[in-house]
Amino acid sequence: MIPLELARVAEITGGRLNAQADPRAKVTGFVEFDSRKITPGGLFVALSGARVDGHDFAAAAIEKGAVAVLAARDVDAPAIIVPPVDRQRGDNSDLATNDPDGSVAAVVAAMSKLASFVARELVKNHGLVIAGVTGSAGKTSTKDLIAAVLSSAGETVAPPGSFNNEIGHPYTVLRCAEGTEFLVAEMSARGIGHVAHLAQIAPPSIGVVLNVGSAHLGEFGSRENIARAKGELVEALPAAKDGGVAILNADDDLVASMRDRTAARVVTFSTTSRAAHYFATDIELDDVARATFTLHSPDAAPQRVCLNVFGAHQVSNALAAAAVGVESGLSARQVAEALSNAHGVSVNRMDVTTRADGVTIINDAYNANPDSMRAGIAALGYTAAARPGVRSIAVLGEMSELGSGSVQSHRELGDELARYHVTHLITVGDSEAIRALHTRASARGISTENTAGVAEAAEAVGRILAVPPAGEDGWYEREVRDVVLVKASNSLGLWGVAESLLQRN
């Protein structure tokens, strides 16, 4: 964060200093809401959670070096006490889920005001470039690729993992300092107005919209409403004459039509059409579904890109990242080199590991929606197809927040598993949607087993892997080389299955 005296922080956030706070003391370090991560000169944000209340750790944060605490009520430590905020009726945001008294909303509103001030100061006085990315699927992977590209040109801040909501977004903005040249802002939404709110905190000059799928369909009601929400990003961009650039996926009709909702200059990317500004040709996948392709960009020679991230869907994400890089002033060659050197940094996101015995684990258990499920199953099927005779095992939990279409969406996954010749399915849970998936997969000839939780699912996979696959001549293969995909919505914690399998290496 840029250095600010406590008196100035109080003015920006609309708070008041308590008796223990020194108005001239200066915040010079990071803003943190985990007291264990506080470093000298930092500011501690006291958030109340379902299990612990950050206000109870105010003194501990000061002992760790915090200058003050941003709090909703007075604490026994130097603090800025922020005013309450009005609760919005029908708010379905992540923030409202565990905030019965509104104290979290008050503190986060103050943190957002501080982040907004810092972002605007850095844009105006230090030339910070802010690139926002949104979409129903692929945001985190694309954010990581954009960060890898921009980091090759200058100091870049990007959210750790999926810090893309009302709390994670301002937290990420406040990681920026005077030497930061690029900020990559991942923007999620559970309702209309959420992306617009995030864009207001840190106004982007570049906006990327990846796709409009069916994630959070239960909250939005229709894909058209999802498109309305995602398009708030391009609506927030400055006009073309002021440097605004909207980067749209030409392969998604609902995204492509957003060109009419922005005053920014529009550029497109595509894996199928040479009419787009950025497109890919000669796409090839290796035996663990890592893509190699030729990148075509305006006014530049074609460049070969060899991705180290997994799945054919990453080509589209890489094209979006390439567009951000070139539109930010990098050469196509710089971009291609950065993409070829990029590795996934967000945990449990298409994290592919091959054990010493040859078994490959695809851990994509952080999130799940129909689009990302299809991409994960495709990666599983392709990786297994490159190893004739091996078994492909999908460990799948429920996709949440799909509304009335949930059962049908899960049923269709059974068809998708059959399409990619997946041999085994382990389902986790006992909801109607999971039963529909289990029944359809079994009807399509897939060996299926239902389990109650993480430990039972890991044991089920272990039993399958314990029997070596038979070769074409009937003899068992000494090297297993089977492939396991683990995927579900975040709340199920299904990455524990992947961790358990890797511990048994």
- How many alpha or pi helices? 18
Question: Structural class, from helix and strand content?
Answer: alpha/beta
User: How do the strands of the widest beta sheet line up side by side?
Assistant: 9-10-8-11-12-13-14-15-16
Average pLDDT for all residues: 91
What is the CA–CA distance across the termini? 42 Å
Summarize the main sheet. Answer: 9 strands, mixed
Secondary structure: number of strands:
22
Strand content: 15-25%
The low-confidence parts are none
Helix content: 25-40%
**Shape, please?**
globular
Rg over alpha carbons: 24 Å
Concise synopsis of the structure shown:
With 505 residues, this protein is of the alpha/beta class.
Descriptive report:
With 505 residues, the chain is α/β, with parallel strands linked by helices. 35% of the residues lie in helices and 19% in strands. The protein contains 18 helices and 22 strands. A nine-stranded mixed β-sheet has the order 9-10-8-11-12-13-14-15-16. Strands 17-18-22-19-20-21 form a six-stranded mixed β-sheet, sandwiched between helices. Strands 2-7-6-5-4 form a five-stranded mixed β-sheet. The longest helix is centred in the N-terminal third of the chain and has 24 residues, at 103-126.
SSE diagram, text form:
Blueprint: E1 4-5, H1 6-13, E2 16-17, E3 26-27, E4 31-32, E5 43-45, H2 58-63, E6 68-71, E7 79-81, H3 94-97, H4 103-126, E8 129-134, H5 139-151, E9 156-157, H6 168-173, E10 182-186, H7 194-201, E11 206-209, H8 217-220, H9 223-230, H10 232-235, E12 245-249, H11 253-256, E13 265-270, E14 278-285, E15 290-296, E16 303-310, H12 314-327, H13 332-341, E17 351-354, E18 360-363, H14 370-385, E19 392-396, H15 406-419, E20 424-428, H16 432-443, E21 447-451, H17 454-466, E22 483-487, H18 495-503
Helix pairs in contact: 5-12, 5-13, 12-13, 14-15, 15-16, 17-18
